Amino acid sequence: MSNPMLEPQLLPAFSLIKPDHIEEAIDQLLADNRAEVANILEQLSSSKEQPSWESLVAPMEEMNDRLAKAWSPVSHMNSVVNSDELRDAYNACIPKLSQYWTEMGQNQALYQAFNQLSESENFQLMDEAQQKVISNTLRDFRLSGIALNETDQARYAELQQKLSELTTKFSENVLDASNAWSKLLTQESDLEGLPPMALGAAKQMAEAKGEEGWLVTLDFPSYLATVTYADNRELRKEIYTAFATRASDQGPGEGQWDNSSVMTQILELRLELAKLLGFENYAEYSLATKMAETSDQVVSFLNDLAEKSLPVAKKDYQQLCDFAKEQHGIEDLQAWDLAYYSDKLKQAEYSISEEQIRPYFPLPKVLNGLFTVTGKLFDIQISEVTDFDRWHEDARLFEISHEGEVIARFFLDLYAREKKRGGAWMDDCRVRRRLDDGALQLPVAYLVCNFSSPVGDDPALLTHNEVTTMFHEFGHGLHHMLTQIESADVSGINGVAWDAVELPSQFLENWCYEPEALALISGHYQTGEALPQPLLDKMLAARNFQSGMMMMRQIEFSLFDFCLHREYEPGVTDVQSFLNDIRAKVAVIKPPAFNRFQHSFSHIFAGGYAAGYYSYKWAEVLSADAFSRFEEEGVFNLSTGTDFRKNILEMGGSKEPMELFIAFRGREPKVDALLRHCGIQS
Q1: Which pLDDT score is estimated for 681?
Q2: Which residues contact 134 (CB under 8 A, 6 or more apart)?
């Protein structure tokens, strides 16, 4: 029987991929690739000619792409339709892939061939993107320990393998702990305060489990609705406790999926890896592929933002405490009260809440509006494809066209469900590249969110925060899909410095606050009526509600991540105490002692943001400053949009991000626009 994972096709055949195909297919591909690398090197050594793009880089790119196309749907399905069998197959492949990549990164003959190519005449004849591929590859060889002795190289391989297993374990613990907790309520009065949509979703959730009543879970939409709107303070405390202690030594799942030792092991191994490669610590190692130059630069950037934002955050918090006390008699504001009374305060201040706005953001309208907005900005058209192979009935597929030609495709999976990882993300399914036969492989993206499903016959209704999330992920998607680069390693988001990768995503969020764009993305789900002017005015006025507190929360996460990776000492640093010290300096809100936020901080312990969470703030400076050009020239100015597309989105990782930013903005970025947008400075 042929293995569908090994068949070349335009899009993955999800329904045909079975867990028992996976390991066999990956083994086959890895064996083929190893043989092919040996073959490439043999041909290079027997020929007297210098290595060229065609004889070295192109065949390597072809092999890597073949492997990526097989692994990408597996990794994706493991995140969105997780099962025990799929997880086992995925986990069986992780060490094999890790070993393979380490082997490639430490292949001395391969390194020599790339080195030779970089010093040859052939290099001078290449285009800029191709040269960048080669200089990045040489840098990555150094970061893979090419210069180490045999013993150290073997240790490096062990470390990489163990780290890939531990980060996967961290992620699984969070998913399992989240799935393990739910609460069935049989009296509607227990859920007093919850808006109709959240009640409907809780009822639907109970019915799906064959239960009578209302089920609240730790899926983010359910958690957020409960903690924001439930009048029942005990229920808020219970769900907050379960959420804030996931995968830890505390709370209802105490010790069952505990990430405590997983975190410690990850930190120890990362430090050892960095030192092995000649770096002081893991933060220094992380910066080798980022825009920021030194760890001091990152820390002083964050401290500087903190200094400007802290007074505003303290004022925000004091206002909330005073309001809860004076209007609601709450003397001791607790962590499970913050979202609840913040919503009440927002209503009191601006006569607006997320729930009031929700009916004006039905998903179909938002999606069409998003396509119209990006169409006006970047001269693209988006249409849905209904006939394709799905991994779940919620999955959808779209095509992007420019000047009448299809240039990219993307999958969309928007609703929260069991066995699906929380959060929102963009990932690549196919990368844009020029194939050996001269054809062009078009980029394909996965865009995933966790919104509340439609209830009954009504469409899913989004909060404004969710609308912003969708724009954010679509910004990442456009970065991947609108690229014009044809070399896989610097095409789309590939090769983009990690602290610049959030630029297009955060940039696109700005249109969620522009009246001209809001007219396109909003319309009442029953009447089609546009967001009424008074409501729009209130929404825009409330844009910076508690923005000081939000800013400090992000800075707290960023400093915790970066400083932990910079200062970690095995056997000395206690993660909880370290976080407490950071909070003592920058947090305006002190969480309860049982809070174990770090145990589910997947961004840094299971994602790509280790010693890089600061990227959100770093890139926000870039995105706010880039958007300020649209504020000057018109938010739908096509020539400004074309400039952004050509200088940022189309260029992928083919040039340094600062060079691309300057090409678009005409100067280096300034922090002023960000502080103004957040209402921290006028």
Answers
A1: 85
A2: 57, 114, 117, 118, 123, 126
Backbone angles phi, psi at 381, to 5 degrees: -125, 140
Mean pLDDT of 481-502: 96
Catalytic residues: 473
Q: Are 659 and 677 in contact (CB under 8 A)?
A: no
The token pair at 365 is: 């309208």
- The 3-state DSSP class for residue 211 equals coil
Is CATH 1.10.1370.40 the classification given to domain 359-545+616-677?
Answer: yes
Cβ atoms within 10 Å, residue 15: 10
**CA atoms of 439 and 430, how far apart (whole Å):** 14
Q: Would you say domain 4-147 falls under CATH 3.40.50.2300?
A: no
C-beta atoms surrounding 571 within 10 Å: 7
Whether 166 contacts 266, CB under 8 Å: yes
**b vs e for 606-643, b when ≥16 Cβ sit within 10 Å of the residue's Cβ?**
bbebbbbbbbbbbbbbbbbbbbbbbeeeebbeeebbeb
Collect all residues with Cβ–Cβ distance below 8 Å to 246 and sequence separation of at least 6: 174, 177, 178, 181, 218, 253, 257, 596, 599, 600
CATH architecture of structural domain 260-350+547-613: Orthogonal Bundle (1.10)
Q: Strand 182-185 relative to strand 214-217: parallel, antiparallel, unpaired? A: antiparallel
**For 621-664, how does the pLDDT look when each residue is reduced to its tens digit (9 = 90+)?**
999 999 999 999 999 999 999 999 999 999 999 999 999 999 99
User: Rounded to 10 degrees, what is the CA torsion of 256, 258, 262, 264?
Assistant: -140
The kind and range of the H/E element at 402 are strand 396-402
Q: What is the DSSP string of 240-253?
A: HHHHHTTTSSSSTT
**Cα dihedral 147→497→478→672 (10° resolution):** 180
Looking at the whole model, is its pTM more than 0.85? yes
Torsion of CA 184, 186, 189, 190, to 10 degrees: -30
